[in-house]
Amino acid sequence: MPSVLPWTMASDAPHRGPRLHSPRSIYAALAALLLVVFVLSAVFFARAIRVEEGERLAQNDAIARSVAASIEAREQGYLNLLRSYAGRFRFRESVKRQDRQEALVHLRQLHQGFPELDRVFLADRAGIVWATEPETPEIHGRSYAFRDWYQGVSRSWQPYMSEVYQTDLGHTLAVALVVPIHDVDQQVIGILASVQRLDVLRAWLLPIQIPAGDVFVVDRKGQLVFHRTRAGAQHLADYVNLPVVRRLLEGRHGMEELENPVDGEVNLSAYRWLPALSWGVVAHRAKNVVLQRTRTLVLVSAGVGLVLSAMLARLGGLALRNERRIASALAKSTERLQLLHEIDRALITATAPVEIAEAVLPKLRDLLGVPRAIVNLFDLAAGEVEWLAAAGRRRLHVGPGVRFPLALMGDVEALRRGELQVIDTGLLPHDAHTEALLASGVRTYMVVPMIAGGELIGAVSFGGAPSEFSPEQVSIAQEVAAQLAIALEQARLLERVKRQAEELEQRVQERTLELSSANEQLQREIAERRRAEEEADRANRAKSEFLSRMSHELRTPLNGIIGFAQLLELEADGAEQRESVEHILKGGRHLLSLINEVLDIARIESGKLAISLEPVLASDVLRAALDMIRPQAAARRVEVRETVPDDGYVTADRQRLQQVVLNLLSNAIKYNRERGSVHVSCEDGPQGWVRILVTDTGVGIAPEMMSRLFRPFERLGAEQTTVEGTGLGLALSQRLVEVMGGTLSVKSTVGEGTTFTVELRRAEAPPVRDEHASGGDADQARPPGIRGKVLYIEDNLSNLRLLERILARRPSLTLLSAMQGSRGLELARDHRPDLIILDLHLPDLSGSEVLARLSADPTTKHIPVVILSADATPGRITRLLEQGACAYLTKPLDVKQLLGVIDDALGKPRDEDRGQTH
């Protein structure tokens, strides 16, 4: 612990007047001086009062400027923060859709990053609140159009700081910071607002101390935003009619002597208007208290002059010396005020902590008249001092960021209390840091604490050779330290906001780089605003058309493969033949499932994925997935083990759950080591949950990569290996599990392996169905009495032949066929069939055009039309059913399903088709 010395003040030696030897000269001098004394005393004391008053007004103005700049920078920082969030693409999209869950992700991030914002919420253009963080459903749907914050922001749709109001929740006094949310066409789609309680502002402004005075802040209506003693709703309007407040509400700045009728005092007031916030700041001191010292001096001096007239000559000498001292003090005070104004300007224009300190220290060093002045920041947790900036002799080879022991600053607890420390360098423990100080000529230095928001953040220190520190030096250092504390804390806040904004921007750029070439073009045009949505729609339509076309091109040949295979299955004689057909069907259906997965990815990206939740037996799904994955495991010599009970039901979509399990098993095998193992288990979780665990013995995942694991297209460096993949599997699996109401989590140890855990809600076992009563063989007898004509419009010859073979099981039906849409329309008008089966992709007309013409023609509009197409996109199916189709079947077709639709369309009760035995 360094030796701390009591600091002392410099004093002046008494001045002796001139010695007069002649009594006559003494009397003459006394008579002359008596008159001069009264005249000079009156002039001197009047001037002293004016000087004192002017100095205090100037000090108040400097304080008002500093506080106003600090408040404006702080609140503008919050408004800029809200504007940066309002400009985020995904956030704007969630607001446009009023997707509360997506919006809450951003609101929660904002609230957690800035807890001083008591509440953040979203409202629509009409002022109706629909999302809040922390969540308060009781105000969702409530209109706040009557609030000043809504009326202010909706007046011009610009950022707005509201007047003080009492909140509905908690009935506390607060202000609202509000920004509009625009889409890329600059149309307002919503409002983002945050509530800032007045007690947060109060805690921030309370440390500001003005001897014999105070500072207060008012809003655009003159209501008290901050006052040291007048807090609460009952005092809001106390100062509305004050002259100084009326001047502020007129947008004026100034320094005046004004009466405060509320407190019954005459104040020396400096007031500043903040146009960006429509707030006003007033720094004032009571005139009676400020000038009490000067007035007391007048009374005492007058009494002493009357009583001790014999000592008038001496008094005159003292008066002259005081005059010189006051003149010197006035000059120094003027220099001090001018320097403080320069410091204020430097604080306002500088942004980084280092810039602020480097702008202030040279002026502070000159004003104090010391060889060295330093600003340090404290890291109390580490017990270290961070060198920020210095002014003086450059014998210490240090710079910003260099750290020293905290012990060099003296008693830290005393500094927390705001007490000064005087350190004798020679009494410090001798180490490299002490030697460096001594080598630079620093023998004694004073440490002045910098306290912001009640926290010790650093110190201003100055000194040099052994000396005494005057009260004026201490006062200046304390005042500058207080301003520096506010400015440095504000700079830290601005750096934090800027850093978070840069991080958000970096994340947006990273996401943009991960998109496909079409989306990259879309992102570039999003920056051009007006064409962004048009380009997005065009890209989405192109992708949907591409997926639709690819689905059609892949499903069309599969239709022939699976369709004829189903017929072969119905007609197969021996076990070997049936087994061969089963292999064909199994392979075709597996390829069909892959096509469906490609479409699922597109639906997930567009938010249009539909699922069917039902009780699913987990063991069935897991064992089916294991059967499909075992060949892959055998090829990589990976052992697959299972611990799966037979009675566990979960709430899920069977197909989606199997898709998730297959993805996890495939990854567990692909990224495993040779002769490793994969263990699949199912167990009970807490409170009605079931866990499905997939554990491998692979290389594991490093902790720093965990945050990127579920990002789309993120392969964690695997793209540099021979392992194939797209990086979509885990992201798709996590979203599928979340859509089913569950969670997907991961634990991994590098070098040992990884465990993925799927948690889903437990479900009750469904009632057992009578399989014999509800179904039978696929090859069933045709229903009696089914007669009529069926027209099939299809350009693919193999599909025509397939339908001919299928309808051969209905000998009473006559099949007409057309390979062009126009020819099909002619046959429909000429033969008026009982049923039309229509493909969508025809060489001359689209299927939807053919359907529209059939519906518009009075001779054909009554004929039922069944769509049979390889296009399985949900939007297309919905549109054609709404257009008049009675059914929509997708290729590859299911023979039993097609026969059932034909039976229903021809108006007969549906009987299962039993074919002849061959």
Task: Describe what this molecule looks like in 3D.
This protein has 918 residues and is α+β, with helices and mostly antiparallel strands. Among the domains are: 84-201, 2-Layer Sandwich (Beta-Lactamase), CATH 3.30.450.20; 350-495, GAF domain (Beta-Lactamase); 540-602; 614-761, Histidine kinase-like ATPase, C-terminal domain (Heat Shock Protein 90, 2-Layer Sandwich); 777-905, Rossmann fold (3-Layer(aba) Sandwich). Helices cover 47% and strands 20% of the residues. It has 25 helices and 29 strands. A hairpin with a 5-residue loop joins β7 and β8 (224-226). α1 (23-86) runs parallel beside α9. The model is unreliable at 3-21, 770-782 and 908-918 (pLDDT under 50).
Task: For this entry, give a set of tags.
single chain, 918 residues, Beta-Lactamase, six-stranded antiparallel sheet, 29 strands, elongated, disordered C terminus
Describe this structure in a few short sentences:
This protein is an alpha+beta fold and about 900 residues long.
Strand fraction equals 15-25%
**Overall pLDDT score:** 79
By secondary-structure content and strand pairing, the structural class works out as alpha+beta
- The best one-word shape is elongated
Helix content: 40-55%
The CATH architecture of the domain at 614-761 can be given as 2-Layer Sandwich
Tally of individual helices: 25
Q: What is the first-to-last residue Cα distance?
A: 105 Å
Low-pLDDT regions = 3-21, 770-782, 908-918
